[in-house]
Write a structure and sequence with these properties.
Number of helices: 1
CATH architecture: Alpha-Beta Complex
Strand content: 25-35%
Largest sheet: 3 strands, antiparallel
Distance between the termini: 34 Å
CATH class: Alpha Beta
Shape: globular
Helix content: 25-40%
Radius of gyration: 11 Å
Number of domains: 1
Bound molecules: zinc ion
């Protein structure tokens, strides 16, 4: 099973989950490609469920502090 990375788009700031082996990623919000190595990263997780829960938490934190 592929591991899932959580990282932030450097263009628009959207936090998102995607396969850990991706070196570049097309942002799900702004549609721009970014280099994963240059983005802010929050970790690599064993499955998409754990990763999406973290994305939710991080977004809440950004929104409400
Ligand atoms: Zn973006």
């Amino acid at each position: 099973m592929s591991k899932i990375r959580v990282a932030k788009c450097p263009n628009c700031g959207e936090i998102q989950a995607f396969y850990a082996h991706y070196k570049t990623r097309m942002c799900s919000r702004c549609g721009k490609k970014f280099n994963v190595a240059n983005s802010v990263q929050y970790g690599i997780f064993d499955n998409a469920y754990i990763a999406s829960e973290l994305v939710k938490k991080l977004k809440m934190k950004e929104k409400y502090g």
